[in-house]
Amino acid sequence: MWLGSSQLVGQIGIIDVPVLSTQVRAVESARDLGVVIDSQLSLSAHIMALCRSAYYYLRQVRPAARSLSTDAAKTLVQAFISCCLDYCNSLMSGMANSLVCKVQSVQNAAARLVSGASRLHHITPVLRKLHWLPVYQSIHFKLGCLMHNSLSGQAPQYLVDDVQLVADSGRRLLQSASDRTCVIPRTHNSFDDRSFSAAGPRVWNALPQELRQDTSFGQFRRKLKSHLFV
To answer: Which of 49, 89, 128, 214 could be bridged to 220 by S-S, CB 3.0 to 4.6 A?
Structure first.
């Protein structure tokens, strides 16, 4: 699979790649750890597969959910649909708004199934009552948690190496150095903007100072979710 912008990929005329005594055909997408990666890294193929799978599960659980209590239906939907939407959702940072809306439509359908709300009801109060973060805020929540673990050394080393506090960067100390803000690297294209080393610090620096200073991960998660609900 060739990776790059549509213009660059379109210029590549190589279809088969010789490997030892065989020919390997280049594909337009590939699945890695459950995530469908396309040649332009747009995640469009992954979102299509995700929504197709989520709607399938919604159709399967709908008859059972109608005969359950709200709490039981919520647990059932979270087990089959919400976990799918949350899986690797940090990769959706910087994704096209049209794709985010597709995932949000799945969550809205799941919320209406659990709450019994009709399509005429505004979905925001329903999500708030279920204590479900909307998709866009869920992406920020995952990035914020990854940043907290990276700065505390609890994340995998490849993530820890991608973030750096301003105080540790060797730059001239400013007020931001004591605020636990992170260095945001210079980016050159949209692919760089979506990387964890750029998207993570942007989300982290936008958090309130008292939230960034919290060293307990459990407390940080609770406060972060409350902050994103505001």
So the answer is: 214
What pTM does this model have? 0.86
Q: What whole-number distance in Å separates Cα of residue 134 and Cα of residue 107? A: 8
Per-residue DSSP letter, 32: E
CA–CA separation, 174 and 219 (whole Å): 28
DSSP letter at 222 equals H
- Reported as type and span, the H/E element at residue 20 is none
Answer whether 113's CB lies under 8 Å from 60's CB.
no
**Among 43, 52, 110, which residue's Cα sits nearest to residue 76?**
110
Beta partners for 27? none
d(CA 113, CA 77): 9
183: left (phi over 0), alpha (psi -120 to 50) or beta: beta
- Of 131, 167, 130, 165, the residue nearest 151 (C-alpha): 165
| pLDDT of the residue at 41 | 85
**What is the C-alpha to C-alpha distance for residues 175 and 167, in angstroms, rounded to an integer?**
10
One DSSP character per residue, 136-202 reads HHHHHHHHHHHHHHHHTT-S-HHHHTT--BGGGTTSPP-GGGGGT-B------SHHHHHSHHHHHHH
Angle at 230 between CA 204 and CA 176, to 5 degrees: 30
Task: Give the span between the Cα atoms of 36 and 44, in whole angstroms.
Answer: 9
Query: Could you read off the pLDDT of 149-161 as tens digits, one per residue?
Result: 999 999 999 999 9
